[in-house]
Design goal:
about 190 residues, seven-stranded antiparallel β-sheet, globular
């Protein structure tokens, strides 16, 4: 290594550029990697962004995958575990959040898909009903456990039973990554485009 390269690496190391670390969105520190469990695979942060409604901060969302992907189609096609992690920014009734998610599903799924996932959507809604409320600072995770289905947890405590069907998780991703996402700039952020 020549002196210039060594000097450049030293400057980069001192400035923090090029180092892996946590991202920060709206004051929320977001790990750049995570594991479902000690024995589980490591997932990387694909992107993260802020969900707002009427100029109010609602939540920060992060998308974790086995490897980074820049398009919604590639995220859906990627095999293996996935996680949407949501940091709640304000107190909200769980049924309000569930209603917003189901509204987004209705905007992004065809009538055929809505009929196909009818029982899973009902279970998804029932899982939120059991949660009742989420408070500012709570962390919700929506995990794809391949072969098992979708697991929803709040503050690391699983709510309900996993919702069967890996394809249902792909449908859920359309809430944020579909053609009519809940927020266009959040979609870009989750895809690492901003």
């Amino acid at each position: 290594m020549n002196r210039f390269t060594a000097l450049l690496l030293t400057v980069l190391a001192m400035s923090g550029i090029g180092q892996a670390g946590a991202a920060e969105v709206a004051g929320v520190k977001i790990d750049d990697k995570l594991k479902f469990s000690a024995a589980g695979p490591e997932l990387v942060l694909n992107g993260a962004g802020l969900r707002t409604r009427y100029r109010l901060k609602v939540y920060v969302a992060g998308l974790y995958l086995a490897e980074k992907k820049a398009s919604a189609a590639d995220v859906v096609a990627l095999k293996g575990p996935k996680r949407i992690q949501i940091w709640i920014m304000r107190d909200v009734a769980a049924n309000q959040m569930s209603s917003a998610f189901i509204e987004a599903l209705n905007a992004n799924l065809s009538a055929t898909e809505l009929e196909k996932f009818k029982s899973q959507i009902q279970q998804f809604n029932a899982t939120f009903s059991a949660i009742e409320a989420m408070n500012e600072g709570d962390v919700m995770t929506i995990d794809l456990l391949p072969g098992t289905g979708t697991r929803i947890s709040v503050n690391a405590k699983a709510s309900g039973t996993p919702i069967a069907g890996d394809d249902f998780y792909a449908a859920l991703l359309k809430i944020w990554l579909g053609d009519n996402p809940v927020q266009a700039d959040l979609k870009k952020a989750l895809l690492g485009q901003i």
